[in-house]
Specification:
heterodimer, A: 451 residues, mainly alpha, two-stranded antiparallel ribbon, 16 helices, B: 167 residues, alpha+beta, four-stranded antiparallel sheet, rod-shaped
Chain lengths: 451, 167
């Protein structure tokens, strides 16, 4: 396996930007219509009132908050994985990082939308912003919702910049290979990039600093999302394990999302010369590790509750293990643990198809996990008279489906207008710094160091 | 702006040109090397590598930390709300806000330093040739002194096939 030469890399990766097929328009129209349907449904919900949803006393958080946690989790695919791989200078990251970072940006935007969709009067969403206002409502920094605001916005800002900075040299490449209006637009986006040695140094230093900074921020974001639950004295929520449990689950679902996105891009943009089976095998190994870690956390959580034998906790425990939520629970265990361990644990099955099958299962399983955290606990609080049930209504289902279409649409548009694989980083892989490698080492074209 | 430069097919040729310019008495600050990707295995890639960005990022982090501390403290004391029996100024939850804004400060400081020190977004004309994106490496001198032009031409002309360009 050898990387194509520099000219071929540029031609291949600019091809989707400079050429548009009718299939692109068809896909955008299809996805756009689903997104429009979701927006119309949301407007319908606003006009008719929140009673159109299945959300009611005592289950005030359901599909929307499940989606919120799910998408924030998916967002951990990109920036966190990219930052870790950059810091350890894993050469095989080069074709992967941008595909991953884009997921973060869009998943965060979609995730952050759900608390607003969940508002009865979403046009007053700015009341969520913690600023001293004329309404004399001052921010309460002891509320996990205020922590969410700071954490998600810091992560979103950092992730967008982390995505944008390495795109600048690629915008310059597009600028130099295009004409007319396109040249003007990419010229503005390239910010006058020339590629002097000084600019390369500054860019790489900035990326290193951001990689160092973004990792703890990414961990903090999902820890804080877990605090939305664990700070409340609700059965099976008030647990010290929730922070790391949520972070592990987020990385788990994030890697799964990344594998699906990469396989789709490889297939439809013909990136076989850049996204090798090795990339999927490496990500598959990461997914396997996270699957085992996820299983470990679930076992810890369940065992501690079962051993404590507290009545309120046990009510939630049994309703998920053997009660009405048990089909969802055991489906979750099967697709999050059993199937990935079998597929990814056996080398022969760790193919691109195998990784995609395991990843699809993990995405479904992690959505179920969030649903099973939110709904059974709220439906089985301490006093049985306040128990309740929840059935999702069409508006919630339609809005949920439309966000998946929105994610695909945004990703498609991004891949159309920006090189989805970083051109300069791919080329830079052929010019590694001698300081990074011990004497006698050479770098494989994919970036693996062979001593 | 006026400039004298040449395009080289690979890093080795560019390195020879840079070495020639150095021998001709041109300092690293006056040599411009432009490539389509960082080429760290060549000595010329170290031109202009000195930066205080890490320190500035730390400073940005400190500013973010101080801002968050002030914001939380002033807000809590200006409008005291009794929440769950917690102290009015609760440092445990405040630490979360302080952490996030510290990191945000460091990130923003890095990006601003990058934009300023790398000269991004400036409108003034600069030495550049679009052939760079096709894999060529530009080595040149911006605003050279007229007296030094013969020496510079000699240094850049490492091979008869290399054609010199001027702006």
């Amino acid at each position: 396996m050898k990387l194509p030469n520099d000219a071929t890399i540029t031609t291949d990766l600019l091809h989707p930007l400079l050429n548009t097929s009718w299939r692109f328009y068809l896909l955008v129209a299809f996805l756009g219509s689903i997104v429009l349907m979701g927006l119309s449904t949301w407007i319908f919900q606003m006009v008719m009132g929140f009673g159109m949803t299945g959300i009611n006393n005592p289950i005030f958080w359901a599909f929307y908050i499940t989606n919120f946690v799910f998408w924030i989790g998916i967002s951990h695919a990109g920036t966190l994985i990219s930052a870790i791989l950059r810091l350890v200078n894993a050469g095989w990251r080069r074709p992967v990082t941008r595909c991953a970072e884009v997921i973060t940006a869009f998943a965060l935007m979609i995730g952050a939308l759900f608390p607003i969709i969940h508002l009865g009067r979403p046009w007053l969403f700015f009341w969520l912003v913690p600023y001293p206002s004329s309404r004399m409502i001052w921010p309460n920094f002891r509320s996990p919702l205020a922590w969410d605001f700071f954490a998600i916005n810091t992560y979103l800002t950092g992730s967008l910049l982390f995505l944008f900075l390495p795109m600048i040299p690629d915008f310059a490449i597009v600028r130099d290979h295009s004409t007319g209006l396109r040249r003007k637009i990419y010229g503005v986006l390239a910010l006058g990039w020339r590629g002097t040695t000084k600019q390369w140094h500054r860019l790489e230093t900035a990326m290193s600093i951001m990689a160092v900074g973004i990792i703890p921020v990414a961990v903090s974001v999902h820890t804080i999302v877990s605090f939305d639950f664990s700070m409340a004295p609700v059965p099976m929520w008030h647990s010290t394990i929730f922070g790391p449990y949520f972070v592990a689950g987020a990385i788990f679902s994030g890697i799964a999302g990344l594998i699906i996105a990469m396989a789709t891009l490889r297939k439809f943009l013909h990136l076989e010369n850049y996204l090798y089976p090795l990339h999927f095998q490496n990500l598959g190994k990461l997914l396997l590790m996270m699957s085992l870690l996820w299983g470990y956390f679930v076992f810890n959580e369940r065992l501690t509750v079962w051993y404590g034998n507290h009545e309120a906790d046990m009510n939630v425990f049994w309703v998920t293990q053997t009660g009405s939520f048990s089909p969802l629970f055991w489906t979750m265990v099967t697709v999050n643990f059993v199937i990935p361990v079998i597929i990814l644990g056996i080398k022969r099955f760790r193919t691109i198809t195998g990784c995609v099958i395991a990843s699809c299962g993990v995405c479904v399983g992690m959505w179920l996990e969030r649903f099973l955290i939110v709904v059974p606990s709220l439906g089985h609080k301490y006093l049985p008279y306040s128990w309740g049930t929840y059935t999702p209504q069409p508006v919630e289902l339609l809005i949920t489906v439309s966000t998946f279409a929105a994610m695909t649409l945004l990703y498609t548009l991004f891949a159309k207008f920006v090189p989805i694989i970083s051109i300069w980083e791919l080329k830079a892989g052929k010019h590694p710094s001698p300081a990074l490698f011990p004497e006698g080492a050479r770098e494989h074209p994919l970036g693996e160091v062979h001593i | 702006m006026k400039a004298l430069y040449a395009m080289y097919p690979d890093g080795h040729a560019a390195q020879r040109a840079v070495d020639g310019l150095r021998k001709a008495g041109v300092t690293d600050n006056d040599i411009t090397v432009i490539s389509a990707q960082p080429m760290e295995e060549f000595n010329f890639s170290h031109i202009g590598h000195k930066t205080y960005m890490w320190y500035i990022a730390c400073l940005g982090g400190l500013v973010g930390f101080a801002g968050a501390t002030g914001l939380a403290y002033i807000t809590e004391t200006s409008w005291p709300i009794n929440t769950g029996g917690m102290p009015i100024v609760s440092w445990w939850p405040n630490l979360i806000i302080m952490f996030e804004l510290t990191m945000l400060g460091a990130i923003l400081a890095s990006v601003i330093t990058l934009i300023v020190t790398a000269g991004l977004g400036r409108r003034r004309p600069a030495l550049y040739d679009p052939e760079v994106t096709d894999g060529k490496i530009l080595v040149g001198v911006e605003n050279p002194r007229d007296a030094s032009l013969p020496d510079l031409k000699k240094a850049l002309q490492i091979h008869p096939n290399i054609s010199l360009k001027t702006i």
